[in-house]
Amino acid sequence: MKKIITTGLVAIAILSQPQVLAETFNSGADSVALVELFSSEGCSSCPPADKKLSALLDNPQLFRKFVPVAFHVDYWDRLGWADPFATPEYTARQYSLLTGGNHRSVYTPNFIISGNEWKGFFTGHSIEGAVDSLAKSAIGNLKIDYQASDSQHKVKAIFSPDEGFIADKNETLVLSVAPLGMGLKTDVRRGENRNKQLQHEFVALDWQKIAMTYENNQWVATLNLSKDAHKEQAQAISAWVSNEHSLIPIQAVGGFIK
């Protein structure tokens, strides 16, 4: 009887331990494009762009050659429908990317691939073609270790520049991380898309940044992600590195976490 009780206590102890999800993703040495879509549920012309981004879900090069992220902006909210995925930070990112490229205004839908405005969506061109045209070799590997438990979500990142990549150890690189929501649906009641059900893939549920440190010929960082209701919806993770004074990505990585 004593042996049975002991075994039972061990089983209870194992079951009571917090469940930890751990995933590791590597970009590889060649460039992986960050494909950004700035969209809004209040914009009637955005659903076709959302659909085009969602179509990448079935592409075999997903998370190998490109990492899609849909940032929902909030400047449409005042026209009748508050986008539940929009934040002022995403709007500010779009403004910075476009004004940095000497554009006079922002708009939706707006694709930006590897830091470059891409208008091929409006002429029926493929995202994959744009990714290929901007691809670069021998950038360096971006590795992220993603861990999630009931108490925390954490990303450890290492960017190891390739020998051919010009790297200044005195330059500060910044790690960005965005958990992604997949298969999200919204019944829109007001605004330009009223009475429609919209479905989204690769939706940024958060965007957090941290400066990386240079150690042993590579840049490293650990970012603790805040855990809130949105994180419960995250089914993929995206990450990229950029210069301290630029939002243009140097290398990107991502993958499914559920």
Task: Write out key terms for the chains shown.
16 strands, alpha+beta, disordered N terminus, five-stranded antiparallel β-sheet, globular, 258 residues
Provide a descriptive summary of the structure in words.
17% of the residues lie in helices and 38% in strands. It has 258 residues and is α+β, with helices and mostly antiparallel strands. Helix 2 links the parallel strand 2 and strand 3. It is built from four helices and 16 strands. The protein has one domain.
Element order, helices and strands? Answer: HEEHEHEEHEEEEEEEEEEE
The portion of residues forming beta strands comes to: 35-45%
Spatial gap, N to C terminus? 41 Å
Q: What Rg is obtained from the alpha carbons, in whole angstroms?
A: 20 Å
Strand order of the largest sheet: 1-6-7-14-13
Please give the count of helices.
Answer: 4
Q: Give average pLDDT, whole number.
A: 89
Helix content: 10-25%
Low-confidence stretches are 1-5, 10-16
Q: What is the global morphology?
A: globular
Summary of the model, kept short:
The protein is an alpha+beta fold. The protein has one domain (20-256). The chain has helices spanning 2-16, 46-54, 88-100, 127-134, and strands spanning 21-26, 33-39, 66-72, 110-113, 116-118, 140-148, 153-161, 173-181, 184-188, 196-200, 203-204, 208-211, 213-215, 218-225, 234-243, 249-256.
